Amino acid sequence: MTAILSKDSRCNRLPLEKQQLVTALKEAVQKQYGEEDDFLDDATCRRYLAGYKWSLEQAQTHLMKTLRWRADVKPETWTCEFCLETPGQHSMRQIGFDRAGRTVLYTSFVQCASNSFSAEESVRHMVFLLENGVRSMQHRFHTKQQNASVQDVEEPAAAQDDTLSNHSAASSSSSQTGRHHHVPEQWVVVLDCTGMTLAACNPRIASAVTAIIGNHYPERLGTVVTLNAGYLMRYAWAAIKVVLPATMASKLQFINSEADYRKAPVCDVFDEELREWVREEERLNRVHPLPDSQRNFWKRPLPPAHNADNAAPVHDPRGTPSYVRDYVEALDVDQSGKDRKAHQPHPNIIQDLAGRITTV
Ligand SMILES: [Zn+2]
Q: In whole angstroms, what is the distance from residue 136 CA to residue 147 CA?
């Protein structure tokens, strides 16, 4: 018996036994759920099976719960009302992509308007980011595929996996994330612990966020990179680790010195653009008092000519140059939120682009 080729190329690379499990899960859930749902595709079934140790029964139970949750709360329509009410309430935002094309989310405690959050609002903000992160990965992958097709015609000798050949160290991680062969599916979270307070590292909030990720986004969290982790982060981590599944708890990496940026596996994740952005963002967020341009991280920075100090390129806290170019400045603010498949950046960035926000 041969498996029917799936639209999800990762499924086609699985052993036959697992491909059959993907098909069996999809058929079982379709039968039980009784409705068509775009979310229920081979890639989703594969992630649920992988997330539940390839147990058909467990994957079916949890996938059914997610389908009902999605139908009930419609997470793809969420924004973060808390940030709309209080600009910068949450500083976590997508700032780009890693070497493997995975969504990179960054947050700094010093940039948050408040260091006291409820679990509800943290979940709201996080789900908004996660849903939009998936959209950006899909959009970027398909755009690159289209461009590569054009280049193939014009330059048949050009290597399709150009970045792989330049960064062999990344190829091991790319094999996990499917760079250049599959739509990337995971997020990388960069957590700058500078300014972390006891209130902000409430384990109940971390537990609420990780529960949502664990229950409804299995196999989506790729790596968490922490910057400047002090004793509070170590304290919080010890508490959070207890409630995390082992697969999630093993994803943490630390950067506590300049040298750490150059070590594997961090340099396997960060390409040069991302590394330079994170280093400069981290440096500016350690300045006292915090510069207004960092506090109002959603604002488009003034062009170099308006800077008194020098004409060097200005750091943009909204994200890496390529992310800002493709997903911030290219945003159609009038249409933003109407197309459910289009990526939206941080809610305050959208407000700023639309001229609907003031500085704080
Ligand atoms: Zn928010």
A: 16
